Amino acid sequence: MSSLDYSLDYRSLIAMHNDQIAKETGTHPTFFVQTYGCQMNSRDSEKLTALIQQLGYKPAESQENADFILYNTCCVRESAESKIFGHLSRLKRLKTEKPNLIIGVCGCMSQQPEVAQQFMDKHKYVNLVFGTVNPHRLPEFLWETLTTGKQIVDITTDGALPEITGIPVTTREYPHKAGVNIMYGCDNYCSFCIVPYVRGREKSRPANDILDEVKLLVDDGVKEIMLLGQNVNSYNSDGEDFAGLLRRVNEIDGLERMRFMTSHPKDFSDEMIVAVRDLSKICKSVHLPLQSGSTPILLNMNRKYTQQDYLTLVEKLYLAIPDVAISTDIIVGYPGETEEDFQETLKVVRMARFSTTFTFMFSPRSGTPAAKLSIIPSEIVSDRFNRLIEVLNPILLERNNSKIGKKLNVMVEDTTDDSIKGRTDDHTLVHFTTDSPVIPGDIIPVLIKSAKTFYVMGATTPRDINKLI
To answer: What is the pTM of this model?
Structure first.
């Protein structure tokens, strides 16, 4: 743990330090941020990037050219953690060539005490290690390592909201869309999940702060907002629940589309269904993690709903919003899963007819209850995973085939390929051609003419439509 003088203005100190380097060398120090993990990590990286730019650093084209490299990490899966340490080992070699290179690691992986200790014991070439609660203190940590050369490791767990939420973002991956964190942490403690241990208990941001951030983003050209949280539908701040927050965001002028992720099935209320159905700016797509279709496995996972509870919720959504797209997460091979349990998962897949699925083979995370359970042999898990895909893909293709002949509003995302890419209201990926000039964020009607498993194709002009027939 570091002990720093809070009376100092570390942002100004580093900015002056970097300005002096620029005067002496003719160029400002550069930085590179590498993000691993979920949308929340991506949003945190945008905030960290804005903060680093305030310190006088300029973006580097690659990490090899950077003077300061920061990895914002994920630990949801063991493979992600192994990949990060593999990349860090290459940075160690880079540091032998550039002794003044500053390497930092933050986020969920480094928030784990055993991992933080590992950095102190085995990876002393990493200058900065901090967690999920204190990224706003990056200037302090950076100043101390710049002036003392010491390794800084700080994984404070004070239960407060990360103050990084208030930092205005200057650069986004997509100019027309952005994520907005509405809450941090999780109270569910699913047996397989490390998130509550590294993100802490649920903490909801004040509604007015969220609304102010959305308005600033809209003023900056953002047309689509993704409201982010580990369990957005348990949001509650000063009596404002998630359905109420959705209604208020829906009223913001200039906002075209609103999405949210992730929802927990046990907290998806009737009021939320009404909000998704009735609010004009909410996209008709819902991410509803299943994890398993077996009630005994769900009980073991501490998911707090049964197979029937889940199917009842799906039925309610389809009845209220017939064209809703439901995406999901599924874990195959959770400890104790029998063939009968797996068949129950396939049953739910066939009945729910998901639009998108994120499928995973079980990966134990140290520190979670599931990590203490007996692992199913990998060949059995792989076989079940492949059989799940065989059931899922025809459903995805059938859903996409149902869009052929329809004219759908598509928000442009990418214009760099031969065909333009965009997303429909229900998040379907569309490749299309058009004679009209378009830019990311434009919403244009596209006639869908053909479909693949994971995307559809279309056009906006009669000439291009005829090419597809």
So the answer is: 0.84
